[in-house]
Amino acid sequence: MVDLYPLFGTWAKQFGLDAAVAKFTAVGGPELAATYKEQFEADLETVQLGGPAIVAAGNESWYSGSSDGSMFWPPLRAHFRDDQNWAPERLDDLEKAANKVVAHTPRPDRQRYQAKGLVVGYVQSGKTTNFTSVIAKLADEQYKFVIVLSGIHNGLRKQTQARLNSQLKGLNNEHWITLTDEDRDFGPQASDAVSLLKSTEKVVLAVVKKNATVLERLISWLSAHGARGALENLRVLIIDDEADQASVATGRINPLIRDLLALFPRNTYIGYTATPFANVFIDPASADLYPKDFILNLRRPDGYFGTEMIFGTDVVEGENQGPAPDGYDMVRIVPEDDVQLLRPAGKTNAVGFVPTMTPDLVDAVNWFWLATAARRARGDRSHSTMLIHTSVKIDVQESFKDPLEGMRSQALAAIRTGDELFIGTLRNLWDRETARVDSVNWNGRQQNSFESVLRELGDVLKAQRVVLDNYRSADRLDYSSGPVVAIAVGGNTLSRGLTLEGLVVSFFVRTASAYDTLLQMARWFGFRPGYEDLPRIWMTHALERAFRHLATVEREMRDDIDQYQRQNLRPTDVAVRIRTHPSLAITAKMGAAAPAEVSYAGRRLQTRYFLREDRTWLENNVAAAADLIQDISPGGREPEQRGSAELYRDVPAHLVVAFLRRYNVHEDSADLTPRQLIRYIDGQRNGGQPALQKWTVAVVQSSGAKILLGGRSFGSVIRSRLDTGVDSIADIKTLMSKQDRVLDLRTWDSYDAAKPEHELVQQRERDTEYRSRGLLVLYPIDARSEPVAPARGSVARVPMDAVVPVIGYGIVFPGSVGGGTSVEVTHMAVDLAGASGSAWDEDGEQREDLQEALYSEEGDES
Q1: Which of 131, 362, 468, 567 has a CA 20 to 30 Å removed from the CA of 577?
Q2: pTM tops 0.85
């Protein structure tokens, strides 16, 4: 018998499962229909396992994955497998991620729908690959018109067009019609929209720059000759790449995108960005582009060189989870005094500026040459790029060309003549840098000898060129004509979307005042296969601290998004919250953002920064901890032993509040502001279902020097500080271990260090005795705190060297994230009071981005 399940699956996805069962009951009988229904439901569950437990949060689950008869996804998957040699695990991860997005779109048989979603990736992490896969999968679901809004620069539009031509049309040429090509944005068409869109069975694709003239041209073409009738039943997908750029809060581009969407009664709009701050701050009650239907995280891909590679993960020193828990030692600090030598100070006129080739910049360029030569010695002769970003002023960028060219000429001459002084300088740099980041961390790779690197250096210098990439330059980065070795000096054109292939070295001292601007300029994130040990970044201390803060912001934001998914909540039910910073704006486009009333329920907080040289500050905290222990153990009350920790149960809330009120918190720990914590605790105690009346207080001990607290002697723990260059402030990064977060639970023995944070929260929720109790954990920290032997190549740690012992604390609140009493804290979010419940109508009814991209900085293409 012919297997009719592919047809059943297609019918179920198009018209719903009940309709498919009815259809196939009539065709093949109830037994066949029941068998196919069971198989389809199993396929739905398989798709759901690719993401959080709830895939289509708040909406109907309809997508069961691609079927054997699909036309567009199978050849794309085969291309990644056969032509790009992807491992099966990587292919499966890609398909799961694409399924997750498609599963959140409306079921295609709806008569009218205008869905809006947002996909949050990482900088240079494969967002284009994801949306290419989503396009292929939705084309298999009868979406016939695909518009990709591809940034505001010609370079990114051309790069995106080339990718889609190769991976969609190139694999299925007879089934695609393209309205644009690599050298031509949308322009006059040979056919009118009615003739093309109504008659063809092919999928029509346009890759369009977010430029006012181009968008007006596209809208005009779609509106002419009675085209609206042709669009009535057309399923349309709009992908907005770099969705926070030009699309949000602009006077011309934003309305034009909304006008474009209004042309199509059945459309799905999906924004893609790594910096979604402006998008989540759009007014949800407006008819704007707020992602009403879904906000999704893309999982960080295996092999991705990102924030955690540089700034580490949230583990306690000595736990050694991963090869470098504090991040690899890849950041080099540029002294603040040198910045004025690299760009004009203040508003000084940039014309005539002459940069100084400072020692750090010379080291950076030399390392770029050495790293590129090392890659060649390893057999890797692909693209290799260095980024220099000191100023947005084009005159400043241009001023670097001659010094860089001169440095290259001198180096080439020195290599040709065997200049021992120059070669010795390079050898010292090679030895110094390879000692700080050991290649053995990656698959046991043995480091290249300096001699093997030196043999390749001459050819690297011959191939290297300086490229000024800005809107005024004629010579742009172009990776299409063989391997490139380039030092790129930019430029806003390099800070959005465009991939810097083989980026090894970044010299980055440009100022920026907002999260999204900083993150988008961080082009050093991406994939570095075979040379994971070689990337280096030169930046100032201020920028390094800003990026460390952004690492926390990103992690919290993604945790929120995933938590809401797991709780089956949509973006109209709960708003994404973004932590603020004392001196950085979140985005220039704050939209409807306001200080967020949020809850501490399900949260874990910990102290991280300490004024190690301030005796009075530190002694006050020791006294606060001593008084707490004294007050909770009257008459020599013996604590419960939990491993090396001592636990005091049934501690009244007022004693915990007294401790929090007295304890000194460093100003950079804004989420531990005593007033906010106490307001939350009081709100919980006095609520309709009182909680936090009782607490467990634990003291974690180790083998350090003894510290006397409340008449009891405790062995102190070791918490050294990161070598940040700011000696007065000790940044220990992570205080609490995962195990410490469940110290009070009766199920403590079932603790699993591999569990993610949300599972620890759920473990607390399951313990009925302690689901309404808080946990306060004290850490007496040894004043000296010599570092635990660091992982090879990890960021350096140095002794705490505090003037007296240090007291840290962690606090764990019970409950589900988002529950409980709310208090105003240092986050921003939109007010959802006026947001509509659904964007799917089933019944049928800073300065603006380059002057709002009226003309991009490259001008309009015809």
Answers
A1: 131
A2: no
